[in-house]
Structure formats: structure tokens, C-alpha cells
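anyone seen this seq b4? input:
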Amino acid sequence: MIKPKSTVFNTIWSWCFVVCMGGVLTACGSSGGNSPSTAPLTNTPSTPEAEQRISLPNTEQNSLTDALSATDAVQRMGIGINLGNTLDAPYEGDWALAGEEYYIEAFKNAGFKHVRIPITWGNHIDESSPYQIDPEFLDRVETIVNWVLSRDMIAIINVHHDEWIKSEYDSVSNLNRFDSIWIQVSERFKHASSDLIFEIINEPKGLTEAQVNELNKRALSIIRNETSNRLVIFAGNEWSGIDPLLATENPDPTDPFLIGNFHSYDPWQFAGICTQPWGSDLDKENLRNIYVQAYEWSVTNNVPVMVNEFGSAKYDFQNPENVCDQSQREEYLRAHVQNAFEFGLAGTFWDDGGSFSTYDRATNTWGPEMQILTGN
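predicted toks r here
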């Protein structure tokens, strides 16, 4: 940027004043013909120390008196619904209508057993130390969580579209920023009902298996530093499909309060972008096999499992001319629900208030998918 002349003059004058005060008077406008020689100034700005990884805070660990076992939680959760495109948008209201308490009442009345509240923190937390979360945003998160808990439903909160940790994982600043989210969230909800579950990270696309394993362990240690027995959900890398879950490490095999998780929009060509049909015997077999693998992993690792995103688009929002057949959508969702019940998994329908939705937020009405999902 080019400074105005007056600014340049002031800058020069300020420099002269500082130098003059340091004893070099002849540099401040005199001819300097008879000035004594003066040693040059040697003071230089100190180099800031490299940022170090933050330590866990010293705190008294809490133990929830109403602790819910992982198995009991998965059974209780049954089929739930995502409050998608809400707190996970850059700012609430950007992608869908802002959250309202009557949505949660509608979810409860429809028969959903839990609500996943995806949250993107990036625009609401400092980019440098001490990485404080905006208090008003944290209050908003707590308000929506309480809407769910007050209706005897299980609530799930997470770190959702925070691409900065996924794209630059090796940054110490980003790692500290991510840790700080869970430090503050764990402290804020330390004494909340055990019906509140923490999900470490959503779809860590771009991270390696090793990085996700490290991230899961670190976040779990932060949560456990505050509360010994709050339920925590973990998943694998990339889009958190079934294969990454099978490949991921249990962050703590001695911890009984963990739930494994995967997402399924398989095949994406049908469920995501509506470019192929669905419903053949092979299609149904392939989908069921995903649940078989999840069940076998659960038994082997003694960790209950959920699929906290599944769904089918009505149309491809990027290419809206691609429309999914409604009868095939309903058959697809029915297969997910049946498989979840058959293999004892909890499932969470992805409702984004748009192409994946069954609930119309503006009119407080439901589409036909709701009856398939809840049986009501």
C-alpha cells in the first residue's frame, strides 16, 4: 500500500526523533559537518519463540453419576436425525433456516430418539493463542443442546467442517486450536447430562490413518481430563466410510465409553448425485454387507457402532437436473433402517433442510421419509 505524503513525512520525523533521543543529533536535520562519530544502534527485535503444543489444563476430573454405557446408548438412540446445515454452516442461517426450538419438538413428536448437532467452529474461535471460542456462539451451542436434552433425547455435538485442521494438520497452531475446542467444550459441558455425547471429528478428509489415530487419542485424553465417563464417538479418516472405520485404531481399548462410527451414502452415484438407479438385489446385498462388516468389527473390538450419517438426496444440489426416483429413495432408506435394527446399530438420518431433508423447517411438516425412519 502507498502511504500519503504526510504519513511518509511523519514516519521520517518519528524515526528522526527516536534516533535523536538515542544521541545521534546530527542525523535529525543538522548539516552534520562537525558531528562526532557515533556507534550505530545495535538493538534488534527479538525473534519470537516457536509455538509449543499446549498442555492439558490442571483440573479436577468429574465422573457422571448418571453414566450411560455405550451399549445402552446405542440401543436407546435407535434412529435419530441430524440438524444439518445449521451450526455447521459458516454462520447459522447461511445454508438453511436457523435453528428453532420447534424443530426439536417436531423431531421428538415424530419419534426420533436422538439429534446430532454438527458444529463448525472455525469462524467462532480465535486463530491465535489463547484460541478462545466466542462466548455467544458457545452459549448458542448450549441452548440447542438443552433443547434436545430437555426432551429426553440424546444429543451429539462434534467438530464438523473445520477444514483448517484437515488441510494443515502439521501446523502446531492448528493442532493447538483444535485441542482448545475440546478443552473448552469439555469444560463447558463437564456436568451436563450423560445424554450428551461428544464426537471427535467429522469426515477428516485429507488426513492419513496415522494422523486420525493420533487426533482421536489426543482429543479423547482432553475429554477424559475433564470427565471420566462421558460417551465419545470416533471414526476413521477420509469420508468416514466403513473401510476407514475397519482400519482405524481404537483410541483407548480400556475405555468402555466409546462408540465407533461410520457414514454411508453408498453408492454415492445414487444417494448423493442421483445419476444411477438403486434397488436391485445386488444393490441391497452390497448395502447389507456394509452393516455386516460394521457388526463384525463391533464384536471383534467390543465397541458398539452407529452410522451417524445416512440418507438419500432428492436431487443433486450442484446439478439439480439430476433427480432421484422417490420410490427408490424410500426403498433405500428402508433398507438402511432395517439393517441398523438387524445388526443392533444406531443410525442418524442426514437432514440438511434442503435436498436431503424430510422435515420442512418453514412449514413444520414432514415428507414421507419420516414414517420409514421412525415407523410413525
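The beta strands are 79-82, 114-117, 154-158, 196-199, 232-234, 258-264, 305-310, 346-349, 359-360, 365-366. The chain has one domain: 73-374. kinda curious what u guys think
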